[in-house]
Write a structure and sequence with these properties.
The complex is a heterodimer. Helix content of chain A is 72%, strand content 2%. Chain A is mainly α. In chain B, strand 2 and strand 3 form a beta hairpin. Chain B has 13 helices and four strands. The C terminus of chain B is likely disordered. Chain B has a single domain, classed as ABC transporter involved in vitamin B12 uptake, BtuC. By secondary structure, chain B is mostly helical. Classes of the chains: A mainly alpha, B mainly alpha. Chains A and B meet through helix 10, helix 11, helix 16, helix 17 and helix 19 of A and helix 1, helix 6, helix 11 and helix 13 of B.
Chain lengths: 520, 368
Amino acid sequence: MKTIRFSKGFVTGIVFGIVLTFLFLIGFIETGSGLLSKLFGQPVPTNAMPKIFFVVLFFVLIGMWAGSSLVRKYREEPFKDLLPVILVGGLTFGAIMGIVAFIFGSIAKAGIDVRTYLVAVSPALIGLLMLKIADPTIAALSLLTLFTLATLLGAFLEYLWQRRFSDKAKELKGCVSKRLIRFVPQHLFEKPAVKYATFVIALALFILLPRVWGSYWNYVLGTVGIYILLGLGLNIITGWTGQLVIGYVAFFAVGTYTFALLTAPEPHGLMLNFWLALAIAVGTSALVGFLIGLPILNLRGDYLAIVTLGFAEIIRILLKSDLLTWFTGGPRGIRDVGGPTLFGMVLNDDVNFTYLIFIMVLLMIFFVARLQRSRTGRGWEAIREDQTVAKATGVNTFSSKLLALTLSAAAAGLAGALFASRNQFTGPEDHVLLVAINVMCLMIVGGIGNIPGIVLGALVLKGLPEILREISNFRMLAFGALLVVMMLMRPEGFLPAKRPKISKPEVPDSAQALKEDQGI
Amino acid sequence: MKKPNQSTMRTMLKVGKYVRWVLGIALGVFLLWRVVRVVTVEAAYTPDTWLRFGLSGLILGGMYALIAIGYTLVYGIMFMINFAHGEVMMIGAFCCFFVFELFRFLPAPTMTNPDLVFLNAHPFLSVLIAFLVGMFVSGCSGYLLEKIAYRPLRNAPRIILLITAIGASTFLQNAAMLLFGPQRKNIVNPAVLDRGAGWTIQFFGKPVLISYTGAFSLALSTILMIALYILVQKTKLGRSMRAVAQDKDSAALMGVDVNRVISQTFIISGILAGASGVMWGIHMGLVNHITGSLPGIKAFTAAVLGGVGNIPGAMLGGMTLGVIESIGPALLGIDFQLKDVIAFLTLIVVLIIRPSGILGERLSEEKL
């Protein structure tokens, strides 16, 4: 039996109150209920507010979340023991929201526009928070009731779920995963006919899809592919070798600009062949990575992160400055970057580009997958786990790290060249630090050090925002929060890298045994 | 498989060392040549201009130094780069903005002047309140940052802590943007502390203006630095901080509450960053969500420049970086829009030539 304290109710209520107030202040209430409305098949027209029903639904869902988080760990106690705590939590949550609604309602009633200081809080948004009730006091009281009831409901449902269904659900999940996910494919995939059939289907899809679904999806998928390349490249140095590189965008910029300068008619008029320029771009990026790594990599770990960060900033400022306008085109960027050609054919449309990026991604995946299992790859992972031990077992840590950085820079160069060629344009704004942070995010979300994880991460982080256009304002905020939450909850990512483990002998935990003896 | 050639690798290591020396000497010669040329041959700037550059560098350096101390304190104890530290400074600058805005509209009429507002009626009280609010809120955010984001990861690999810090930084920056809007906000100072006002001194026959805000910032940052030095060297808290920085486990055995000390370190570094943010607001007069990011990175540069983990080093590094940044472009004869390039180049060059910084001793491998 665990004892549940009133303070837990207070804390939960206050935390949820602060979070929802924050969501209100940044205007997410409108977006959230708009999404709900879309989910129910009633998309909100532009410049209109979602219906009040969906706002209430949004509030009820958050209230239920608060309630369920209160009782999650207490399935043994009778419900009436938990009731006071749930009530305290719900009342605290409701009171905070009521006070917020009262304050903003009174301000709006007095005719003061707070948008000078809080840009998102428009009178219409305040109206949503107050559930379109004109009088602030009544609105505050109804919010108090709403959140208390929603918390109670959520807690009750969660309790019921925990008591009645959670064991059964777990059993069911176990059965399903055993039967469906493990049993079926393994037996099927061992048959060569099925293997070839899957391969053929995948190939057919891969050839047909870009032709069928139109240029917008080709564009989105091309972006995803370029980010997969970047993610795989960063994974070599950060995921496997364990050296943090923050300014990865610097190598990307080197690749982009090398390629663009070599193929564009302005400012130099070189107009080289696509493949030659691609090779030179990759080579230049690799060389830059090598030169940066040479003096830095045998120093302490953080220094690489800082130096690349500084390098990325330098490159961005230089590209924007007047000093290099004659060489790089300055803030206006470079236009008419050359497209790919093959035996004299110009392959410049979006379908061919999707093919090209697909092929590059497949080649890259093949390359890094082979690399990971090689002696070099195992050396990298040894360095990540423990540099001293790796050194003692015969890994030359310095040259291994240097090789990793060079390869990873080369991958960024490849991605950069493809990026410039596809967009037919590149400018300083394509190379802000945000790109590097996005790449790091996708690597971490997917699963650091794991190739399928990176592909998944790129699909999720670069593909989803295109589908969920409503949340584009909140994307970076969500990224930041996601990074912290992922690191706290699941630092290995959604698809964690599998590592061989040595099984430990079963030893009874003496501290645990002692605790059990004392009945704690 | 072929065995790796040992001698090539050894040569490469040696090359790395030589690159460092060659770069250092070449850079020194080049700098000397430029300085001599700019000062004697080109004579592009008169002495009073140099003094003006130096002064603005010192003022900027004071703010950098305060932020850099926060980086150094946290690095010394947890060996992590707190990337969200610049955002804590941004929070301080926003506090300054809101306090001044509040007082700007708070009427405080007197007999002679019925339109007088609180900001102009009690300018020093307003500034004091702005500082107290800024330092309090920033200290709280430092504490919450540690409590929510970093404490659960106390024993995690450092790369995870770093990524968390980057995430926290992105979150705070975008939260500020969504809350207060992306445009820059003007901070209206009390009339006494007008940014154009100041003492004029004669230097080589030319007037040089020392603005009140600049002098105030420089004085206050000096006072805060001295206070911090006394705190770290003389008080019990400072002693426990130094003990935890040296060895967490031994400190815990000696009866130091390590978690508490780490929290207090984050609070102190938050307070200093907040003070620096308020100064930034008063002196520079503009604030938006990215106010903190560039000074944050530069302050980290300053911390590395002085020797990371070393408090006098951070102060010296901050001052040096401020002066380099404001004199550098003139000295090298390049455009002033490239001053950030000079700051970052300084960082890279210092890391290559003297990785331990100006005052830092070589950190041992255990601190990796």
